[in-house]
Design goal:
Elements: E1 2-11, E2 17-29, E3 33-38, E4 44-49, E5 53-60, E6 65-71, E7 79-84, H1 87-101
Antiparallel strand pairs: 1-2, 1-7, 2-3, 3-4, 5-6, 6-7
Length: 103
């Protein structure tokens, strides 16, 4: 299991979402899913199965690069942008999982 610490913007849209800054979010890669855990004020946990990931892309903002995770899981907020100081490693791991799943 590989884990990354960072920040996240999560919700139903860019304008209707919560922002958790570094270091209050961890995203771990497990056997069959991403596990996103926020730990500021109230702990929340979201699980996204790799098979339900529809796209992963990188978006540059003013001072950082964010990773957009798109999925089709109704129980998980649809708008997710994760940023970490290890963006390239995070994207490389996503790419290798995606190839292994033949998505």
């Amino acid at each position: 299991m590989m884990s990354f610490r960072g920040g996240i913007r999560i919700g139903t849209s860019r304008w209707n979402s919560l922002n958790f800054t570094w270091p209050f979010v961890s995203v771990s890669f497990e056997n069959d899913c991403f596990r996103i855990i926020t730990s500021f004020l109230q702990r929340k946990e979201y699980v996204i199965l790799y098979n339900n990931v529809t796209n992963i892309s990188c978006k540059s903002f003013l001072f950082y690069k964010g990773v957009i995770i798109e999925h089709n899981m109704p129980a998980v907020p649809s708008y997710i942008i994760f940023w970490t100081r290890q963006t390239d490693s995070f994207l490389q791991l996503c790419k290798s999982i995606r190839q292994n799943l033949c998505l």
